[in-house]
């Protein structure tokens, strides 16, 4: 039994009406740890458990850390998550709620990550939040499920942080004979590391992350994500934070599910940038979720 669930796939009446075409939602917001990340991370953790690892280490104070903690609890393997001082109390408590130990170290992710790597020994598996082929193969199962359900689509909309979701969906499309289906890759302003690399024509690091969509806050995408933009149809879209937060609030009313701005960014393409979907009739949107935002936080962002 995989650690992730097969999630609902539904045709969204509100998003279809808002965008003037048929929009299907893959509801990975409903995974138990709150995001799609458990697909890839669950697969990676199971792989490492089978090969004899006795501890998992993560350096993510976000959904990846929560997913590793969840996987560890399910597999009865202890988990240590190293996070920087900037990590919210809510994120830390979501990780601890799964029984993992949280170590706070350093001002930034780089420092927490260095400390995490020091804690790795022969019996420990380090679980990267996005740059690992084991993760991509696990994320690809979301496309297998859509294809198995018999739903056809002519584009996939998803958000991009470090590009693990992009790499996984690309793999899922390829292994189902859908290599020509375009991917609409969405980032927020201030976290647009994929666009920076595409514009520069080479893998490029942002000087800083300035978006509130912290789950998209990888300063540099995985090499594989950049390669994908060169080898298959990928359209890049950048939305601003406000539009992403508004999309979260509308989605909460429309589908009664609360997601992070990282997910709102992708949904915003239907709500606010439907012009970017002009060539398509049936669009698959990955509702990737995210557990670290609260309604109070979304309202505060909307008011600011
Ligand atoms: C991690 C995450 C993303 C981005 O995924 P990457 O694999 O880093 O590109 C998007 N949305 C949510 C909610 C996430 O947790």
UniProtKB/TrEMBL annotation:
<comment type="similarity">
    <text>Belongs to the serine/threonine dehydratase family.</text>
</comment>
<dbReference type="GO" id="GO:0004794">
    <property type="term" value="F:threonine deaminase activity"/>
</dbReference>
<feature type="domain" description="Tryptophan synthase beta chain-like PALP">
    <location>
        <begin position="6"/>
        <end position="289"/>
    </location>
</feature>
<protein>
    <recommendedName>
        <fullName>L-serine ammonia-lyase</fullName>
        <ecNumber>4.3.1.17</ecNumber>
    </recommendedName>
</protein>
<dbReference type="InterPro" id="IPR001926">
    <property type="entry name" value="TrpB-like_PALP"/>
</dbReference>
<keyword id="KW-0663">Pyridoxal phosphate</keyword>
<dbReference type="Pfam" id="PF00291">
    <property type="entry name" value="PALP"/>
</dbReference>
<dbReference type="GO" id="GO:0003941">
    <property type="term" value="F:L-serine ammonia-lyase activity"/>
</dbReference>
<dbReference type="GO" id="GO:0009097">
    <property type="term" value="P:isoleucine biosynthetic process"/>
</dbReference>
<dbReference type="InterPro" id="IPR050147">
    <property type="entry name" value="Ser/Thr_Dehydratase"/>
</dbReference>
<keyword id="KW-0456">Lyase</keyword>
<dbReference type="GO" id="GO:0006567">
    <property type="term" value="P:L-threonine catabolic process"/>
</dbReference>
<dbReference type="InterPro" id="IPR036052">
    <property type="entry name" value="TrpB-like_PALP_sf"/>
</dbReference>
<dbReference type="GO" id="GO:0006565">
    <property type="term" value="P:L-serine catabolic process"/>
</dbReference>
């Amino acid at each position: 039994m995989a650690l992730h669930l097969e999630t609902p796939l539904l045709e969204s009446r509100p998003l279809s009406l808002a965008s003037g075409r048929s929009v299907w939602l893959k509801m990975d917001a409903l995974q138990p740890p709150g995001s799609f990340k458990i697909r890839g991370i669950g697969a990676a953790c199971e792989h490492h458990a089978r090969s004899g690892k006795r501890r998992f280490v993560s350096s993510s104070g976000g959904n990846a850390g929560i997913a590793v903690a969840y996987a560890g609890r399910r597999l009865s393997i202890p988990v240590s998550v190293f996070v920087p001082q900037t990590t919210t109390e809510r994120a830390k408590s979501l990780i601890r709620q799964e029984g993992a130990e949280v170590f706070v170290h350093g001002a930034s992710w780089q420092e927490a990550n260095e400390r995490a790597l020091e804690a790795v020994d022969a019996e420990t598996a380090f679980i990267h939040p996005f740059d690992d082929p084991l993760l991509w193969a696990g994320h690809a199962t979301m496309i297998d499920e859509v294809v198995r359900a018999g739903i056809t689509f002519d584009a996939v909309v998803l958000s991009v942080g470090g590009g693990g979701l992009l790499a996984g969906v690309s793999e899922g499309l390829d292994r189902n004979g859908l290599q020509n289906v375009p991917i609409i890759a969405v980032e927020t302003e201030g976290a647009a590391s994929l666009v920076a690399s595409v514009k520069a024509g080479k893998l490029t690091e942002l000087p800083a992350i300035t978006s509130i969509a912290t789950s998209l806050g990888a300063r540099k995408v995985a090499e594989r994500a950049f390669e994908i933009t060169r080898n298959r149809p990928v359209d890049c879209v950048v939305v601003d934070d406000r539009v992403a937060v508004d999309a979260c609030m509308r989605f909460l009313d429309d589908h009664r599910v609360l997601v992070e701005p990282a997910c709102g960014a992708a949904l915003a393409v239907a709500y606010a940038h439907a012009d970017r979907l002009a060539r398509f009739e049936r669009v698959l949107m990955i509702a990737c979720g995210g557990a670290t935002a609260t309604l109070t936080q979304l309202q505060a962002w909307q008011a600011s």
